[in-house]
Write a structure and sequence with these properties.
The protein contains 15 helices and 24 strands. The protein is an alpha+beta fold. Strands 4-10-11-17-14-13-12 form a seven-stranded mixed sheet, with helices on both faces. Strands 21-20-22-23-24 form a five-stranded mixed sheet, with helices on both faces. A three-stranded antiparallel sheet has the order 1-18-19. Helix 3 packs across helix 11. The protein is globular and about 75 Å long. The protein binds glycyl-adenosine-5'-phosphate (GAP). Glycyl-adenosine-5'-phosphate binds next to strand 11, strand 14, strand 17 and helix 11.
Length: 475
């Protein structure tokens, strides 16, 4: 194997269970995040929103490769949660909901962060974050991270994180509506619609993927904390009393999904139980990934939350809507409000974890090879197709192979420009797991070479075998 030049994240992750990586390591990991931002832009994974206007802070756009990667992450989730199960139904609820939904959910009253403003430079920060970062007991001990002034702050003000807008023609007479801060509430208000139309029996779940919006005070760290993001949420309705058992099951299943389906390094994954519970939860914890740098708790950042939400949400919607949200058990003739186990993953954070997990640099023949070792099932492009030279019928033959793969639904990229080694490197950096080369032998006997990104080994197979070969390895 070529020498690994990338910072030893795995080693850091192992060392950081409980203690966190040391300062030097954290610095190296920050460097990794910078490299990722640069590669993401160069290769068309992620661009800053509205870049030509100087950029919109903490909002990002997914480019040609990024949109494919994120779609593959979401499709893998939908397949595991909906298509492979009889007991979970899909839903696509609207972003805008009745404003009372957010009163019932507790978001109007409680979805707030304590905001303080520096009296010198007027920058605003979350007081709780500053207190924990600076291990301080009160704001008069806090130093402004922006201008360095100590102890000069406004009184904390509760700042609601929901984006507000107006429904109707004139702001003064119109109804306030909110951009949803989580997709979950669209599931709760549709609980009986889905249960009855799909004829589901408790225990069963409802899954949804969609945009959510939060006016975060301190967003940042690339796509880790943004104002607009996508959630992949599943709410599992269970009989009260069985909730503890289901919580454990979902906790284990979701960790296994990140490990086995998404391919995140087990040494960089952990489950972190919450000590302080949200107003709706009786048990909760996060699936965390070790990103390194300044993300989360010494590099460990939440990618998914698992919550036992009890019967809080359905009971509150019963109370505020005046409609019963009870399940009637047909066998026992019992009625009850189910408990809910929620699994709430971020599509953007999971996609960022895939990129951070995949990035590596290797020394190969005196040069640095940058590789995105993304799992073939998630890779945006599955194979490159290259004519060795631009003559002797090779471009035409390579073009036919490329076209045939595309028609069969295997994303392929045709490239005839530059030396073959450079073409391989370009695809290594884009995360493409395979490369097919048409050479002189192809024209004589119909065989091509197939190169694997991770090992750089090459095999020669018949042109007719290419599709099967790739299908077996893409999964
Ligand atoms: N319904 C429960 C809920 O929304 P959460 O822990 O606040 O729970 C779930 O959010 C997931 O959504 C997080 O684990 C994270 O992956 C993602 N997420 C939350 N806020 C985010 C933000 N500002 N930017 C990007 N992703 C975010």
């Amino acid at each position: 194997m070529p020498a690994l030049k990338t910072p030893d994240l795995q080693g850091a992750a192992r060392a950081s269970h409980g203690t966190g990586p040391d300062a030097a390591q954290a610095m190296a990991d920050t460097d990794l995040m910078e490299k990722l931002v640069s590669l993401a832009k160069r290769r068309g994974y992620v661009f800053q929103s509205s870049e030509i206007y100087g950029g919109a802070a903490s909002v990002w756009d997914y480019g040609p490769l990024g949109v494919e990667l994120k779609r593959n992450v979401k499709e893998a989730w939908w397949k595991s949660m909906v298509h492979e199960r009889d007991d979970i139904e899909g839903l696509d609820a609207a972003i805008l909901m009745h404003p009372k939904v957010w009163e019932a959910s507790g978001h109007v009253a409680n979805f707030t962060d304590p905001l303080v403003e520096c009296l010198n430079c007027h920058r605003r920060f979350r007081e709780d974050t500053l207190l924990s970062e600076q291990a301080a007991a009160a704001s008069d001990q806090l130093q402004c991270p922006s201008c360095g002034t100590r102890g000069k702050w406004t009184e904390p003000r509760q700042f609601n994180l929901m984006f507000k807008t107006y429904k109707g023609p004139a702001e003064d007479s119109a109804e306030i509506v909110y951009l949803r801060p989580e997709t979950a509430q669209g599931i709760y208000v549709n609980f009986l619609n889905v249960q009855q139309s799909a004829r589901q029996k408790v225990p069963f779940g409802i899954a949804q993927i969609g945009k959510a919006f939060r006016n975060e005070i301190t967003p940042g760290n690339f796509t880790f904390r943004t104002l607009e993001f996508e959630q992949m949420e599943m709410q599992f309705f269970v009989k009260p009393g069985t909730d503890g058992e289901w919580f454990e099951q979902w906790r284990e299943r979701r960790l296994a999904w990140h490990r086995e389906v998404i391919g995140l390094d087990p040494d960089r994954l952990r489950y972190h139980p919450h000590e302080k519970l949200a107003h709706y939860a009786s048990a909760a914890g996060d699936v965390e990934f070790f990103f390194g740098g300044s993300i989360g708790d010494e590099g460990w950042g939440e990618i998914e939350g698992i919550h036992n939400r009890t019967d809080f949400d359905l009971k509150r919607h019963q109370e505020y809507s005046g409609k019963r949200l009870e399940y009637i058990d047909p066998a026992a003739g019992e009625r009850y409000v189910p408990y809910i186990i929620e699994t709430s993953a971020g599509a953007d954070r999971t996609t960022l974890a895939v990129l951070a997990n995949a990035y590596r640099e290797e020394a190969v023949e005196g040069e640095t090879r940058v590789v995105l070792g993304i799992k073939p099932s998630l890779a945006p492009i599955k194979t490159g197709v290259f004519p060795l030279v631009k003559k002797d019928g090779m471009p035409e033959r390579a073009g036919q192979i490329h076209e045939a793969l595309r028609v069969r639904g295997i994303p392929s990229f045709y490239d005839e420009s530059g030396a073959i080694g450079r073409r391989y490197r370009r695809q290594d950096e884009a995360g493409t797991p395979f490369g097919i080369t048409v050479d002189g032998e192809t024209m004589e006997n119909g065989t091509v070479t197939i190169r694997e990104r991770d090992t750089m080994t090459q095999a020669r197979i018949s042109q007719d075998e290419v599709e099967r070969y790739l299908q077996e390895r893409i999964g």
